[in-house]
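Async update (no meeting this week)

Hi team, since we skipped the sync, here's where things stand on the single-chain job. The sequence we agreed to prioritize is pasted below, unchanged from the tracker. I ran it this morning and attached the output directly underneath so nobody has to dig for it. Comments welcome in thread, and please keep replies under the output.
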Amino acid sequence: MTLSFPAPPSPRPDQEPGTRPAPVVGLRVPTEEDAHVWHALFADPEVMRFHGGRPAELSVYQELTARQRRHDAELGYCFWTVLDAEGRALGFTGAQPWAHQDFGPVGGVEIGWRLARPAWGRGHATAAARITLERLRAAGVPVVHAVLKSENLRSAQVARRLGMTLAEEFVLPRTGEAGQRFELLL
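Output:
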């Protein structure tokens, strides 16, 4: 699957120099078809660098999208499919209950994002995550966490743009890699 994206929008006359307007994004509850879409979008080893290092099987995305549909129905939030202004899927952004019991914000809510490489650096993750924060506030979530590998500088930049602060540094139990937990009080 080849993805192409239009150039970022031109700055507005009233916009601060060196900044660009946020891209238009939409979020939708992932469909059964989105399992196939996510599988194709994330087949790039560079996209998966901080998520196991290699593309996952289709069955992983089938289970993930089904779980996200349940989260949305039960909690009012999930990892949503991110759509650009033309309705093309770019990846996912959203929130879900923290899935691990042995580390991280046990019992908390994590915010996360994963986009296809052609969408990187265009503001889509930040724009979609801001919509996620609005929806989490509306759902009454008091605090949200972003847990990432310390080497994942792009995700750390998104977390900081959202106003999140570094709350903890730790060693990831399964890999021994350095990890970080950012948090934001809503």
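Quick observations from my side:
Strands lie at 26-28, 79-83, 89-97, 109-115, 143-149, 165-171, 178-185.
The radius of gyration is 16 Å.
Reply here if anything looks off.
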